[in-house]
Amino acid sequence: MSNQQRDRDMALAKASTLANALPWLEKFQGKTVVIKFGGNAMVDDELKKAFAEDIVFLRHAGLRPVVVHGGGPQIASLLERLGKESRFVEGMRVTDAETMDVVEMVLGGQVNKEIVSLINRNGGRAIGLTGKDASLIEAKKMVVEKMTEALSTPEIIDIGHVGEVTKINREVLDIATNSNLIPVIAPIGTGPEGESFNINADLVAGAIASALGAEKLIL
Known about the structure:
about 25% strand; globular; five-stranded parallel sheet; alpha/beta; about 45% helix
């Protein structure tokens, strides 16, 4: 197949997609949609570029996208290079103080800035945030309970700096979306004493969607 034919086929496919999307776009005009972008989808350059293009398209089409991202594989990779084993309890990463430093560096630095840069390079206006910025995500320590046959009451397991959302302060997000910016949020929360918490990105996306009264939450 010639390059010209391939380009024509791609253009026709895009036109068909847009035609099918028009009723959806009209329905969600001016509405907020929260999109969780998982770390496993960030390991392929073409997928990352396509994601950024889609987010920019949604904004230009009149929707208000808010992105919450994960970064599990990237965290695991750096921990491995540092010689530190990744451990999980009930699906949650055990996060001691040293691991929390890695989580903040990877999520708040590497991953967040990469997504922001991708969106901006593809014609958008993204702004990177963590839950610690303007106390966006207030959190408390997550308590994990595990039942065993040998115990009559649940065993309390300490998994370190893992948190759950207690409050979303939406003001900074309202300022961003009202200024035609696309917030890109790393799921790091702040506790009552200023401590940092690693929070599951799905839980953060759900809490933000609820706080903003989002029309749709996309995982």
